[in-house]
């Protein structure tokens, strides 16, 4: 059935009140096994503090502190707007005036705060936490009948919520409140079946089959494996496993880099696979070795791209998405459980020195220690077009340049890519100096959604005031620049990358750039290959904690004790923009935008004329 016909049928069924009546599950007759108590992890105080906030209905979503004494699951508490209770697929979730900030509404309904409460109950035995979990799940089911409202628009939301409910059900076992939510006649089971049916019918296909598809199938697999109590369960489980095995290969380069070329989704997708593999181990199911090998490489790629202080790369979109939350929000703890569980499940060679609450709850906190792969020098991921130029790596004097010489993104729409060909970031001694600006927004503030994806928002060259790739919508591109790498070399003394892209062929030129890193000196050589004279603007976006001042004929960037002296070519006009209309912004996380200095060098150049920018670095 096509999507139009399906929606028509759903509207008729909704009017008649006969949409997807759920069969009763055949629950096991034996008492459910109580999930074992585990030793208190080092992050337990932080977990309890976050559970107490959830108990008081205090949320922190995308940098906003929100309080909702009485929960409306259709409402964005930041704006106070409650979305209509009509057929979900008929609601325009991009309309801020109709639904508010849909990302906040969806984040609340992903129920990560409930798994935090459930984990707190399992560690402490405090029944307040268990009672709140049961209350909120029952409240959600009562307010969200199948197909009604914005929480029934995207199957990814159903997938993530199913994972949360699986772990809430497990962790509440032994509490009298478990029976309120999960007894044989609880209305929650009907919603669980409807969640799975919704995913199986509407899962992402075609050009939309990106991280959403993986999250949808991970939720379907985890739920159908954990609760195989309906006639459809086995079929759903096998469908999800088959797609997960296929998409691990389809959505990941052989090097382990996610093909969306948005690092936040590298972490997100890895979590989904680890949860699915954990569930497979519980029921004695085996994922294909090729899939497991890809997951191992995905995990091992993460520390390969980190600097000496553990800072992770930023490129493409990121919306802080989690597959599950069983601990307080903390980037190091998040990586800790991924590495710990990844080492236990797929033998990933990564450091595993963090016994996180998530790893403890999943039963992998006591796995043997790992011998991480060494990442002592330059690193190249040619299939993804990511090149890490490095000097004195893994020391306090480390210089790390991450250059982007790869495709825009994944599939035809490249939904989460940015127009950042031949851009780069620079970290010195684990301190970010030149940065990727981040994401900031998806469905809200279209002006800023466009800016943060633009060429001008990245450390590369804008020709004649145009983007190298053309945006056609918030998650769509009508023309995508293609990059060609001419040379990559590295040795103990220096690293060099030479590449070009065709994003300005309509102007008669291609942009070619060569990076050369030798010790504390970075040289960036640019030229336009082709014909004519052109107006160019080169941007260097600094971390918001940086200061920029003129020292003679150079600009000095300072971040703490680290300095970078920038020498621009003669003839270029130099300005430093902070909080401007078209530059001077940084998004530290999704939903937040802060001012930051942007250095902009503008001038007119003739085709085939070289200009060189030099940076002297002082760790």
Q: In a few lines, what is going on in this structure?
A:
The protein is α+β, with helices and mostly antiparallel strands and 619 residues long. Helix content is 34%, strand content 22%.
Q: Are there runs of 5+ residues with pLDDT below 50, and where?
A: none
Number of domains: 3
CATH class type of the largest domain: Mainly Beta
Query: What is the rounded Rg?
Result: 25 Å
% residues in beta strands: 15-25%
Task: Give the helix level as a range of percent.
Answer: 25-40%
Largest sheet: 8 strands, antiparallel
Number of strands: 25
Q: What's the average pLDDT? A: 94
Q: CATH topology of the largest domain, which one?
A: Beta-galactosidase, Chain A, domain 5
Write the layout of secondary structure elements.
Blueprint: H1 3-16, H2 44-55, E1 58-61, E2 64-67, E3 75-76, E4 81-82, H3 96-99, H4 102-109, H5 112-124, H6 127-143, H7 155-171, H8 176-182, H9 187-202, H10 211-226, H11 233-250, H12 263-283, H13 289-304, H14 331-346, H15 357-362, E5 379-381, E6 386-391, E7 399-404, E8 424-428, E9 431-434, H16 446-453, E10 461-463, E11 470-473, E12 476-479, E13 483-490, E14 494-501, E15 509-518, E16 521-530, E17 533-541, E18 547-551, E19 554-559, E20 562-567, E21 573-578, E22 585-586, E23 594-595, E24 597-606, E25 611-618
Antiparallel strand pairs: 1-2, 3-4, 5-6, 6-7, 7-8, 8-9, 10-17, 11-12, 13-14, 14-15, 15-16, 16-25, 17-24, 18-19, 19-20, 20-25, 21-24, 22-23
Helix pairs in contact: 2-5, 5-6, 5-7, 6-8, 7-9, 7-10, 9-10, 10-11, 10-12, 11-13, 12-13, 12-14, 13-14
């Amino acid at each position: 059935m096509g999507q139009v016909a399906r929606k028509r049928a759903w509207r008729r069924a909704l009017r008649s009140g006969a949409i997807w009546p759920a069969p009763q599950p055949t629950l096991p007759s034996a008492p459910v096994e109580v999930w074992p108590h585990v030793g208190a992890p080092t992050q337990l105080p932080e977990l309890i503090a976050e559970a107490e906030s959830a108990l008081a209905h205090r949320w922190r979503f995308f940098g906003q502190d929100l309080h909702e004494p009485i929960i409306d699951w259709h409402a964005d508490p930041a704006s106070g707007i409650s979305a209509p209770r009509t057929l979900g697929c008929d609601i325009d979730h991009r309309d801020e005036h109709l639904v508010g900030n849909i990302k906040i509404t969806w984040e609340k309904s992903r129920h990560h705060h409930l798994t935090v409460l459930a984990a707190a109950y399992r560690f402490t035995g405090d029944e307040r936490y268990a009672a709140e979990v049961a209350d909120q799940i029952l409240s959600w089911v009562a307010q969200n009948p199948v197909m009604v409202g914005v929480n029934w628009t995207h199957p990814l939301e159903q997938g993530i919520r199913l994972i949360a409910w699986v772990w809430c059900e497990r962790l509440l076992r032994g509490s009298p409140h478990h029976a309120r939510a999960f007894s044989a006649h609880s209305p929650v089971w009907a919603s669980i079946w409807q969640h799975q049916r919704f995913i199986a019918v509407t899962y992402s296909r075609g050009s939309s089959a990106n991280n959403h598809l993986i999250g949808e199938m991970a939720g379907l697999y985890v739920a159908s494996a954990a609760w195989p109590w309906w006639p459809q369960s086995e079929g759903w489980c096998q469908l999800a496993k088959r797609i997960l095995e296929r998409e691990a290969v389809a959505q990941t380069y052989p090097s382990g880099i996610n093909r969306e070329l948005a690092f936040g989704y590298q972490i997100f997708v890895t979590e989904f696979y680890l949860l699915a593999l954990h569930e497979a181990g519980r029921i004695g199911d085996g994922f294909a070795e090729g899939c497991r090998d890809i997951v191992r490489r995905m995990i091992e790629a993460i520390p390969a791209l980190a600097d000496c202080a553990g800072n992770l790369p930023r490129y493409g979109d990121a919306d802080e998405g989690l597959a599950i939350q069983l601990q307080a929000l903390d980037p190091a703890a998040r990586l800790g459980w991924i590495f710990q569980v990844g080492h236990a499940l797929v033998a990933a060679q990564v450091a595993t020195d963090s016994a996180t609450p998530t790893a403890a709850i999943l039963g992998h906190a006591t796995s043997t220690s790992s011998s991480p792969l060494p990442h002592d020098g330059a690193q190249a991921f040619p299939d993804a077009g990511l090149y890490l130029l490095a000097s004195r790596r893994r020391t306090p004097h480390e210089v790390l340049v991450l250059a982007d010489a790869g495709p825009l993104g994944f599939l035809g729409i490249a939904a989460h890519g940015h127009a950042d060909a031949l851009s780069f970031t620079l970290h010195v001694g684990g301190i970010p100096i030149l940065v990727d600006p981040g994401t900031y927004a998806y469905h809200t503030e279209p002006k800023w959604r466009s800016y943060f994806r633009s060429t001008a928002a990245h450390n590369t060259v804008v020709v004649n005031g145009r983007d190298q790739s053309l945006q056609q919508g918030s998650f769509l591109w009508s023309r995508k620049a293609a990059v060609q790498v001419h040379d990559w070399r590295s040795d103990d003394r220096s690293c060099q990358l030479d590449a070009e892209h065709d994003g300005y062929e309509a102007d008669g030129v291609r942009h070619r750039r060569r990076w050369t890193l030798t010790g504390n000196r970075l040289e960036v050589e640019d030229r336009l290959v082709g014909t004519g004279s052109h107006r160019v603007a080169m941007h260097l976006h600094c971390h918001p904690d940086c200061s920029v001042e003129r020292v003679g004929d150079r600009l000095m960037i300072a971040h703490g004790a680290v300095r970078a002296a920038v020498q621009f070519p003669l003839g270029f006009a130099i300005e430093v923009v902070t909080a401007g209309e078209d530059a001077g912004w940084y998004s530290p996380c999704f939903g937040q935008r802060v001012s930051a200095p942007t250095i902009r060098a503008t001038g007119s150049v003739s085709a085939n004329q070289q200009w060189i920018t030099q940076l002297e670095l002082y760790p």
